[in-house]
Each structure stands twice: as structure tokens, then as C-alpha cells.
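A reminder from the course coordinator: this example appears on the midterm review sheet, so study it carefully.

Given structure:
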């Protein structure tokens, strides 16, 4: 599939901000045999006093920017054209859960793709016994890692309700778990903790999801969204797979990858600091337009 993407993120401040430093990660990745960034651009208003590109640890292109002067709003706009390939559906050659620790221990690499980065805790994902017990109720060592990953994905999709009013970007996984409500970020964080508690390496995927309007309804401009799903390491033979617990599906040609990380803190589209006080309003619009 070939897509044209556009993203607008706007921050409107109650009190003019100054000395703003941000890191932006919104451009899709180029991934071998998965997707190719054909062209992409990033525009920021007001024009930054300093802007530089760099590659982070997980090999994602990012942009650092500085806006010194007072400004009442910050607008970030991204446009890109991306080619997305179908992911092959392979047989389940993943090990039994009981055998996975030996496969992980046998890997000495600590490069960005290493499963060692995606076990244990991470900045937003502490040990959470309630979620661990939830996972242990129905995952056994007699199942393969891939079987367990699909089962966790389906269970979360079944047990949780999508409710954008129930949580915020700062809601903890435990709070979302107890509510059994939230958005894709919440579902993904709960699923990652559940899998890691079983000894299965799992990480966060940030990207875009093409949405299809109901039959007879026109597609609304700006109605697509940034999305999140889960990346799971299923042993040396299978490697990484990607599952979407919000929709209970494997990631496919409707999923466009922007960044991989341990949790949301590694892949947030915009992070930074500024001088201001009071609250701020955020607006976001995304278009994912298929070309063929």
C-alpha cells in the first residue's frame, strides 16, 4: 500500500511560553521488507531558533528544536509518503514458554533489536503484580510464545473497553487495568507488562493507523489517528511479531511504524520543556490517505 500522511499537532498556551526545547518523532521509519519512507517533511511554527536532526538509540530519526521567544502556540506539521508492504504470515516456530529463557540467555547482542532491552521494567512500566497475576491465570509453559502473545492480545481486547474519556497520557498501567477502559496506549502498556511478567520480551510501537469509515459514510478529514501496538520477541527462529490489542489483529498494511521503544516514554511524538504557567490546549489531526 502507498500512503500520503499528514499530521498537525498544535499546542495553545494560556500564558505565552518561551525557552521551549522539544524533541519530535513523527516521521515514519524506513524498514527493510516492511515499509519505505519515500519523502517526508517537518515544519514548525514559530520558526525555531535552532533545529537539528539526530538518530536515537533505537535508530529512529528525531528532530531537536529550540524556540527562545515568547509564543502563544506551537504548531508541528508533518507530511510524508510511505510504501507499506504486507507482512508474511509464517508458521509458529516459536519455542514453548519454558524454553524461552534459554534462548534469551544465548543472545549476547545488546544492539537496538536485542530482546534484552524489552524485559523487566522500563520508565513507565514498573512491576505490577495485579497485571502479572492476570497474565498467569491463562498462560502456561506448555504453550508456545506466539500462542501466548495472541492469547494476551485477544484477552485484553475482550476485557477492556475503548474509551478516550477514561484516561490521559499520564494514566498508569495499573489505573487503566483497574478501570478496564482506556485507549491504545493503555492497552499496549498493560499487554507489555503482562508479557514481560511471563518472561516474554515486549515493546511499544508508535505509528499511524488507517481507519475506514462505516459503509455509506464519508471519510472525515483529519479523523485518522496516531496509534500504538505491541512488538513481541518470539524466539530466534521467529524473531519479532507485532500485535494490535486495541483491534485484536496482527499489524498489517494499515499500520505505519514511526518508532519502537520500551514504552511510551521512548517514542512520544513530542517531548520537551518550556517556561510558562497555566494550562495548555492540544489539538491533533491526522490523515492517512491510501493512493493504491
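Designed residues:
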Amino acid at each position: 500500500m502507498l500512503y500520503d500522511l499528514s499530521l498537525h499537532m498544535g499546542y495553545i498556551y494560556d500564558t505565552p511560553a518561551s525557552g521551549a526545547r522539544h524533541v519530535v518523532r513523527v516521521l515514519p521509519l524506513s524498514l527493510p521488507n516492511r515499509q519505505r519512507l519515500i519523502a517526508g517533511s517537518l515544519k514548525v511554527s514559530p520558526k525555531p531558533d535552532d533545529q537539528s536532526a539526530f538518530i536515537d538509540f533505537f535508530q529512529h530519526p528525531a528532530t531537536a528544536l529550540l524556540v527562545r521567544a515568547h509564543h502563544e502556540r506551537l504548531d508541528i506539521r508533518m507530511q510524508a509518503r510511505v510504501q507499506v508492504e504486507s507482512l508474511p504470515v509464517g508458521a509458529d516456530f516459536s519455542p514453548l514458554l519454558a524454553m524461552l529463557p534459554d534462548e534469551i540467555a544465548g543472545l549476547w547482542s545488546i544492539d537496538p533489536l536485542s530482546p534484552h532491552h524489552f524485559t523487566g521494567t522500563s520508565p513507565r512500566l514498573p512491576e505490577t503484580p495485579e497485571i502479572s497475576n492476570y497474565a498467569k491465570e491463562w498462560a502456561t509453559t506448555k504453550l508456545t510464545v506466539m500462542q501466548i502473545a495472541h492469547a494476551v492480545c485477544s484477552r485484553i481486547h475482550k476485557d477492556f473497553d475503548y474509551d478516550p474519556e477514561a484516561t490521559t497520557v499520564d494514566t498508569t498501567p495499573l489505573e487503566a487495568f483497574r478501570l478496564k477502559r482506556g485507549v491504545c496506549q493503555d492497552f499496549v502498556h498493560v499487554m507489555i507488562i503482562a508479557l514481560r511478567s511471563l518472561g516474554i520480551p515486549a515493546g511499544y510501537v508508535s505509528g499511524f493507523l488507517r481507519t475506514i469509515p462505516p459503509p455509506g459514510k464519508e471519510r472525515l478529514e483529519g479523523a485518522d489517528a496516531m496509534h500504538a501496538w505491541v512488538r513481541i520477541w518470539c524466539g530466534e527462529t521467529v524473531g519479532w511479531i507485532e500485535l494490535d490489542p486495541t483491534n485484536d489483529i496482527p499489524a498489517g498494511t494499515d499500520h505505519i511504524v514511526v518508532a519502537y521503544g520500551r514504552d511510551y516514554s521512548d517514542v512520544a511524538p513530542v517531548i520537551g520543556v518550556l517556561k510558562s504557567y497555566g494550562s495548555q490546549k492540544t489539538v491533533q489531526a491526522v490523515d492517512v490517505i491510501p493512493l493504491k
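The radius of gyration is 20 Å. The helical segments are 100-105, 129-136, 145-159, 173-179, 184-197, 235-238, 264-267.
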